[in-house]
Automatic annotation (TrEMBL):
<dbReference type="GO" id="GO:0000287">
    <property type="term" value="F:magnesium ion binding"/>
</dbReference>
<keyword id="KW-0119">Carbohydrate metabolism</keyword>
<feature type="domain" description="Fructose-1-6-bisphosphatase class I N-terminal">
    <location>
        <begin position="7"/>
        <end position="199"/>
    </location>
</feature>
<keyword id="KW-0479">Metal-binding</keyword>
<comment type="pathway">
    <text>Carbohydrate biosynthesis; Calvin cycle.</text>
</comment>
<dbReference type="GO" id="GO:0005986">
    <property type="term" value="P:sucrose biosynthetic process"/>
</dbReference>
<feature type="binding site">
    <location>
        <position position="120"/>
    </location>
    <ligand>
        <name>Mg(2+) 2</name>
    </ligand>
</feature>
<dbReference type="GO" id="GO:0006002">
    <property type="term" value="P:fructose 6-phosphate metabolic process"/>
</dbReference>
<dbReference type="GO" id="GO:0030388">
    <property type="term" value="P:fructose 1,6-bisphosphate metabolic process"/>
</dbReference>
<feature type="binding site">
    <location>
        <position position="117"/>
    </location>
    <ligand>
        <name>Mg(2+) 1</name>
    </ligand>
</feature>
<feature type="binding site">
    <location>
        <position position="117"/>
    </location>
    <ligand>
        <name>Mg(2+) 2</name>
    </ligand>
</feature>
<dbReference type="Pfam" id="PF00316">
    <property type="entry name" value="FBPase"/>
</dbReference>
<feature type="binding site">
    <location>
        <position position="244"/>
    </location>
    <ligand>
        <name>substrate</name>
    </ligand>
</feature>
<keyword id="KW-0460">Magnesium</keyword>
<keyword id="KW-0963">Cytoplasm</keyword>
<comment type="similarity">
    <text>Belongs to the FBPase class 1 family.</text>
</comment>
<feature type="binding site">
    <location>
        <position position="274"/>
    </location>
    <ligand>
        <name>substrate</name>
    </ligand>
</feature>
């Protein structure tokens, strides 16, 4: 029975049995993500003091300038996961292609792949606004004993076995699901342990917060424009409040606690939107659905979309169930 003050380590072990493939491997994998989160958190917290903010001087496959903290977080998560002989492959926003990881006995015996956005909200790193890490975990579909292949990563979101995020904000939290609800753990920096602070997190069915970069308004599809006008109309429980941090993890986290909707739609500049299906939208969609929320591209459930490329983008609408339904209604009627 989950209880407050339970550490993340204890919770992982205690809930291992409820996990479909209740072997210890997923628990060890979650524990290695827990360790990497602490290492990166330490660097994020002192970002202003050490030479870790600003551009790293390279660009990633998305053509974005890599920030030093992006690169640092990417290295730390990959190193931590690689050393623990659990994963057979990693895909990252900061890596052009997936990384094949062989098991220590060279038998390609590992069963899990991890997809990761090591540092989400990178435009906020240098200005001391909360950022995050997003992870998505699948069991491989190709035979154990063979090197991992692209099809192990291009699985529908509905096949995820676990997903979560770390938010490096006023406090550092790790929030995750293994398909049995969503739980949030807060890091006690004095002790260096994550404690269960937010058991069974749920999106309120309705909310009064909408999160979207209104700077792109004129480029949005008519349905989104109509929904934004609906949110702003002085009628009933509206106008809603506009809140946009510019870090998906932070906007999602706030909306899950208070009730709200986050939108990164397609636009004339980004015909497929900006966010990446595999390591941004799918994991947040899994969490949203496990927390009684909803996630779609305006028409299709995000976790039903069949991926075709590692870094593909999709329009993303996610949050309180009734608000996403309303937004979809406007999209369909536009
Ligand atoms: O600045 P924009 O175009 O509004 O984009 C902000 C969005 O892009 C993101 O930063 C994702 O991109 P990164 O993973 O490269 O940071 C989201 O966290 C955020 O919601």
């Amino acid at each position: 029975m989950a209880h407050k003050k339970q550490t993340l380590g204890e919770f992982i072990i205690e809930n291992q049995a409820s996990f479909k493939y209740s072997s210890g491997e997923l628990s060890s994998l979650l524990n290695s993500l827990r360790l990497a989160a602490k290492i990166v958190n330490h660097e994020v917290n002192k970002a202003g003091l050490v030479d870790i903010i600003g551009a790293a001087g390279d660009t990633n496959i998305q053509g974005e300038d890599q920030q030093k903290l992006d690169v640092y977080a990417n290295d730390k998560f990959i190193q931590t996961l690689t050393k623990r002989n659990i994963v057979c492959g990693i895909a990252s926003e900061e890596e052009d292609d997936f990384i094949t990881i062989n098991s220590i006995d060279e038998s390609h015996g590992n069963k899990y792949v991890v997809l990761i956005d090591p540092l989400d909200g990178s435009s906020n790193i240098d200005v001391n606004v909360s950022v995050g890490t997003i992870f998505s975990i699948y069991r491989r579909v190709t035979p154990v004993g063979t090197p991992v292949k692209i099809e192990d990563f291009l699985q529908k979101g509905s096949k995820q076995v676990a997903a979560g995020y770390i938010v490096y904000g006023t406090s550092t939290m790790l929030v995750y699901t293994t398909g049995d609800g969503v739980n949030g753990f807060t890091l006690n920096p004095a002790i260096g342990s994550f404690y269960l602070s937010h058991p069974k997190m749920e999106f309120p069915e309705d909310g009064n917060i909408y999160s979207v970069n209104e700077g792109n308004y004129i480029q949005f599809p008519q349905g989104i424009k109509d929904y934004i006008k609906y949110c702003q109309k002085d009628e009933g429980d509206r106008p809603y409040t506009s809140r946009y941090i510019g870090s998906l993890v932070s906007d999602f986290h706030r909306n899950m606690i208070k009730g709200g909707i986050y939108m990164y739609p397609q636009s004339s500049k980004n015909p497929k939107g900006k966010l990446r299906l595999l390591y941004e939208c799918n994991p947040m969609a899994f969490l949203a659905e496990q927390a009684n929320g909803k996630a779609s591209d305006g028409f299709t459930r995000i976790m039903d979309i069949q991926p075709t490329e590692l870094h593909e983008r999709v329009p993303f609408i996610c949050g309180s169930r009734n608000m996403v339904d309303k937004c979809e209604e406007f999209m369909k009627n536009a």
